Every structure is written in C-alpha cells, then in structure tokens.
Amino acid sequence: MQDRLESTYQQALAELETVRDSDVLRDWELKYLGKKGAITELVRSVGQLPKEERAAFGKHANEVKEALNAAFAAREALVRQQELARDLEEGEVDVTLPGRAPATGGLHPSTQTLREFYDIWGDMGFQVYRSREVEDDDTNFTLLNIPPHHPARDMQDTFYTTTPNIILRTHTSPGQIRAMRDLGERGTQPIRVILPGMCYRYEQITTRSEIQFHQVEGLAIGRNIHMTDLKGTITAFAQRMFGENARVRFRASYFPFTEPSMEVDVECFLCAGQGCRVCKYSGWLEIAGSGMVHPTVLRSGGYDPSEWSGFAFGMGPERVTMLKHGITDIRYFWGNDLRFLEQF
Ligand code: DAH
After folding, report:
1. Taking 70 as the threshold, does the pLDDT of residue 132 lie above it?
2. Does domain 109-341 have CATH number 3.30.930.10?
3. Is it the case that residue 156 has pLDDT exceeding 70?
4. Which atom of ligand 1 is found nearest the CA of 170?
5. What would the mean pLDDT of 215-222 be, rounded to a whole number?
6. How does DSSP classify residue 219?
7. Whose CA is nearest to atom 8 of ligand 1?
8. What pLDDT is stored for residue 155 in this prediction?
9. Cis peptide before 260 (omega within 30 of 0)
10. 118-127 long-range contacts, Cβ below 8 Å, gap at least 24?
11. What pLDDT was estimated at residue 261?
12. How far is the CA of 317 from the centre of ligand 1 (A)?
C-alpha cells in the first residue's frame, strides 16, 4: 500500500503539471482529493493494514495529501492567471464596460417626512417623546376624556389584545398623558414635545385607510398658553413644510380631548387654491387636528387647569407625504414594493 500511495502521488503530480484550464483542474481535484478520490480512499483504507504499520502509513498519507493540496492551490492560482491573461488577449473581458452599480438602500418616504417634522418642530423647541404602541384602554380613551360608551370610541375601531384592557393605541394622543406625568413633575413644569409613532386601527384596508399609520402628536403645556400660540405655531410649521407663502386656516371642530377644537387646513399647494381633484375642488387640504388641551386631560396629566393651559395637535405624516407627492393609494406605504420605495 505504501507503494500504491507513492505511485498515486507521483501520477497526481505529473497530471497536475499538464492542467491548463479550470474545468480540467476541477476534474483533477475530484479524482485525487474529492470524497471518492484516490488519495482519500487510500487514507481511508489504513484499517486494512497490520496494526504496527498503520501509524507510519497514516502519517505518510497525510503528508501526501497536504503536499497535493498545496500543489493544487499553486496550480489553481497559475491557471486562473493564465485564463485571465488569455481572456484579456482574446477580448472576452471588456475592461471598458462600466461596473455594475451596487444596490443601495434608502429612507422610507414616511421616515423622510417624519425627519422633516422633527427638524421643524425641533427648531421651535419641541423635543421628541416616544410613547408606547401597546396601551391600556384608560390612557388611550378615558384619561383623554373619552369615557366608556362615549360615541367617539366608535370613531376609532380598536385592536384588542388577549389581555383585558390592553390594546394597540389608536392614536398618539395617549402619549400626552404619559408625557405630562413623566415630564411634568406633578404638574409643576412646562412641556413642549412632539410624539411620533405608529398607530393601529381595525379598519377595512382601502386606498385611503390602512390598519397601521404614523401620527405626530404635539403638546405644549405652560402657564400662559393661548389659542394664538397654537395658531402661530402651526402656521410657522406649515410655512416651513409647504413653503413660506402657504396659507393656513382653522376650522371649528370637535375632539373630546380639546376645547375648543379646530381642524387645520393648508391652501392646496397643487393648484394654489384654485381647486383640483386632490383638494376636491375646495382649494384647501386638511393637515391636522388641534385644540386647547381639555381641563379634564390637564387634570389626568397632573396639572391644575386653573393655573396651566396648553395646546395639542395631531398630524398624519403619510397623509402629508401623499399630498406632497400625489400618491393616491396609502397601501403602497406598507406594501414593501421596491418599485414604489425606490422613487423616494
Ligand atoms: N387624536 C386625533 C385622531 O387620531 C388627532 C388629534 C386631534 C390630536 C386633535 C390632537 C388634537 O392632539 O388636539 O384623530
């Protein structure tokens, strides 16, 4: 067997010397070093030898194997080099061809809009406060002046969990309660925060409504905050977001957690207020709900409404993104279709 090992080794080396291309090289590797290769089989047959010869043979066989592995690696490098040289010579590789651009990622359109919001509100002194997505029923509704059986609960169809009273938040407004309790130091400190995050509603998914969407809540609490502050602040935001000539109007509305309540419209920037399909020929686009924080909500947050007041607002970044880019179907946002996402 020693002899066979030696002769196989010599034969393998000799054959390797003649290899000129990588296909033949692969065949050679299979023939000698592969799972069923000649050397591999010899190494395996060590058991057939008398006990006293096994150690010496095994050692020798391993040396042969290593030598052939090294010879193979050297030959492989040489063959590669020769093949490349040959290809270049024969023009098979066109070195003037432009390279393939690697695919790069990008920010989701909602993320881009959110970051724009953060910049603008940050410049006005609003810090980002992150509140939880899994909420309790009390904080999502009752503490916001939406008691059980209040009709406003039906306006927001809720995802319930298997734990009683634990739900997915239907809006970012419950974050108002958490921010006041967390930052207000028992109703003694002013607050200026925005609360961005995902909200969930048990809705029929259509081009206009999704079961998940972002909101950006705003909350300012102080000793001397008036509706003029709300109007001025939101107008300043709109002018940064939609252009310095953007006109804003406030319409009386109703939300349980604010009094008075207003909806905010910005003049349609697609038709400059002339009336188009997107603004439904009204010349205005609704961008936010807002109002003065209801005394009950201030109390929920630990503030005395006879001394403190505040304003709040809620906006939908997906809606703003849709208006800005003329996107007509909200389902694109969470559809993960690159043909959509790559446009931003
Ligand atoms: N939470 C409201 C909604 O989801 C939006 C909203 C309206 C938030 C008025 C506010 C506000 O803070 O003052 O429809």
Report:
1. yes
2. yes
3. no
4. 4
5. 98
6. E
7. 314
8. 65
9. yes
10. 118/194, 118/196, 120/237, 120/240, 120/241, 121/194, 121/216, 121/218, 121/237, 123/240, 124/192, 124/233, 124/236, 124/237, 125/192, 126/192, 126/193, 126/194, 126/218, 126/220, 127/192, 127/193, 127/194
11. 98
12. 13
Cβ(146) – ligand 1 distance below 6 Å: no
Are 313 and 232 contacting, i.e. CB atoms less than 8 angstroms apart?
no
d(CA 298, CA 258): 10
Q: Express each pLDDT in 300-343 by its tens digit.
A: 999 999 999 999 999 999 999 998 898 999 999 999 999 999 99
Locate 230 and state its tokens.
């709300």
Q: What does pTM read for this prediction? A: 0.72
Instruction: Name residue 86's amino acid.
Output: R
Atom index in ligand 1 nearest the CA of residue 311 equals: 13
CA of 37 to the centre of ligand 1 (A): 74
- Burial of residue 243 (CB within 10 Å: 0-12, 13-18, 19+) is exposed
* Residues 6 or more apart in contact with residue 290 via CB below 8 angstroms: 218, 230, 234, 250, 258, 261, 262, 263, 264, 311, 312, 313, 314
Cα(161)–Cα(283) distance, integer angstroms: 42
Give the sign of the dihedral formed by CA 273, CA 275, CA 278, CA 282. positive
pLDDT digits (tens, 9 = 90+) for 15-25: 989 988 889 99
Question: Is pLDDT larger for residue 198 or for residue 41?
Answer: 198
Q: How far apart are CA 283 and CA 262, in angstroms?
A: 18
Average pLDDT, the chain: 93
